[in-house]
Amino acid sequence: MEVVIVADAAAQGELVASAVAELIARKPDALFGVATGSTPLPVYQALATKVGAGQVDVSRLKVCQLDEYVGLPAGHPESYREVLKREVLAPLGIGDEAFLGPDGSAEDLPAACAAYEQRLADAGGVDLQLLGIGTDGHIGFNEPVSSLASRTRIKTLTERTRVDNARFFNGLDEVPRHVITQGIGTILQARHLVLLATGAGKAEAVAATVEGPVSSMVPASALQMHPHATVVVDEAAAQQLKLADYYKATYASKPAWQGI
Fold first, then answer.
1. Domain residue limits at 33
2. 143 assigned to active site
3. Catalytic annotation on 68?
4. Residue 154 — pLDDT band, cuts 50, 70, 90?
5. Annotated catalytic residue, options 87, 103, 127, 143
6. Tens-place pLDDT, residues 75-90
7. Which of these is catalytic: 67, 68, 117, 234?
8. Active-site annotation holds for 173
9. What is the chain written as a DSSP string?
10. Residue 259 belongs to a domain
11. Per its UniProt record, what PROSITE patterns does this chain match (predicted)?
């Protein structure tokens, strides 16, 4: 996989937003896979700036969701659908009709998972999928020991992940215990995967993902098997990479027109 080490989150956001803009210019009706959390926010902000300046036309762009909590009522402010409406769709001026996501409040959750898989397929597949990474190496909500061939399904959150997400709720008791998530096998079908990480707290997970063995204990390590995976990290998140100097030199010598 390609590893790009940038100075900070702002540089990360501008770089990845430029890659998304290039995709849209090449394929206006692309399917853009988005993720929640604080890490991708600079990407969305930089992309919104480009849209506002008339540099990018998102009128035909489609956006899809990586995961969703189970059991939150429709319209709950912390459902990922609502979060993405606030952080991605509204700033970019994209309507709900262009948004694909799983139904975490469905009565038949397995059917909802299968239906979402089918919707992604019917849309032609994901062109570029943004990913964050957990401190334990999870992507989406594929926790350690998740099958590397898994499809969209219901998962039980680990206590560690619930504690990490409690800051978005009024205490740990409000954090759902189950989610619908794209499986690792589903994620790997995207044409381009871009994993983002910032801060020293993610350094161990990044090193295990990039330089460790492919293992279900580090779900993100499955990106090593993808033909076009890009890991974009800041200096702090890169501090445990043994080959950091090599990655920097390789990217510095890359022709600018190749992008990421």
1. 2-254
2. yes
3. no
4. very high
5. 143
6. 899 999 999 999 999 9
7. 67
8. no
9. -EEEEESSHHHHHHHHHHHHHHHHHH-TT-EEEE--SSTTHHHHHHHHHHHHTTS---TT-EEEESEEESSPPTT-TTSHHHHHIIIIIHHHT--GGGEE---TT-SSHHHHHHHHHHHHHHTT--SEEEE---TTS-BTTB-TT--TT--SEEEEPPHHHHHHHGGGTTSGGGS-SEEEE--HHHHTTSSEEEEEE-SGGGHHHHHHHHHS--BTTBGGGGGGG-SSEEEEEETTTTTT-TTHHHHHHHHHTS-GGG--
10. no
11. GLC_GALNAC_ISOMERASE
Q: State which amino acid sits at residue 260.
A: I
Whichever domain contains 34, its CATH number is: 3.40.50.1360
Residue 242 lies in a domain: yes
For residue 10 the two structure tokens come to: 């702002």
Give domain status of residue 94, yes or no: yes
Distance from C-alpha of 75 to C-alpha of 157, rounded to nearest angstrom: 22
> Structural domain tally of the chain?
1
Helices 9-26 and 41-52: angle between axes, nearest 10 degrees: 50
Mean pLDDT, the chain, integer = 96
